[in-house]
Amino acid sequence: KEKAKTERYNFQANQIQFRGPVPDGLYHRYVEFRPFVKQMFTSTGVRGWVLSKALHHQHARVYNFDRTTKWGHFPQGPCKEMTQAFLDLVHYDEGGRIFTYVLSLDSLFRFTETGKEFGIDMLSKHTMHSDVSIYIAFSGEFFIRRLKYKNKPPPPDPADTGSGASSDDGDLHNDGTNESHPPHDLNNGPPNEEPPKDPAHYQLVIDNDSGTYRPNAKMLPLLKKFLAANLPGLHIQTLDCQKDEKKMNRMKQAQRDRKKKEGDHIVYAQAGSDASSISSSDEEQLDALEQSAVDQEDQNERGLAYQLKQDAGLRGKAKVEHLKRNIPGPGSNRPLAGEEE
Fold this sequence. Notes:
Layout: E1 13-17, E2 28-29, H1 35-42, H2 45-62, H3 80-89, E3 98-103, E4 108-114, E5 118-119, H4 125-129, E6 135-136, E7 138-147, E8 180-181, E9 202-207, H5 220-230, E10 235-239, H6 245-262, E11 268-269, H7 282-299, H8 304-326
Parallel strand pairs: 5-11, 9-10
Antiparallel strand pairs: 1-4, 2-6, 3-4, 3-7, 7-8, 7-9
Helix pairs in contact: 1-2
């Protein structure tokens, strides 16, 4: 039996410039949940400098522009077409995808798909998306669900024990007949048909599940209002990652189950680096990254830290050569640079 050949797929990173400004309440600083985190964000100390450089490097690689980059412009501002473009970027409700996002203080919304099948060392997901920004507006994860009836509000979760304030306003009057995909199988859309293009058919479920910045759940209504103004026509539900934890985990598990059933089943690996699994926790990822940095310092292995050290050594050598050329030796009559003959 022939071994299947490895195929190359482009990892999709997305960013949308929303109309600002973001509400004043959407202002969050990184959380110092590990001793090295402050060093990483301020690029202080050898370890902090290495970690910061690695994350900046990762951000530049993920959000690079090349011939495959697709872009668009909506001079009229938020509109139905802009919401459709967003749905196109997230592939509507196809494949049970879950996305990691960061909303910056200048209203730039960055996001990529997340999951264990991505063998891409994202270091710290939200820190990478923010390009190691000390302050952001909001961060977390989101996913999309398609509704059976576009003119009815999204269905309530029958086992919901979370806050009713996090749901759409019309949920309290819902008759329970408007199913969604996932978790239900619905006609007139994926996986067997093309998705409908009307944004009213879709619900954006977004949370504050970010170990790096840990946004204040009390600001979720502000986030919802901001997103509703920039993505008109889309149903939006917010989830508090602590208060609504059971519901959030249940809904995300439904996404993962749907992905196993309908997804691409592709394992992505970043070219030029070792592939590794993505932890479900930012803290675990940063712990692994910290240990990696220590190993690189101690063992002088190949990799970014080693390359940076090499570069520093070459710069130092160049300075020495420069001084040799410009500082006269004993008995020399050659003037120093800047002296008159």
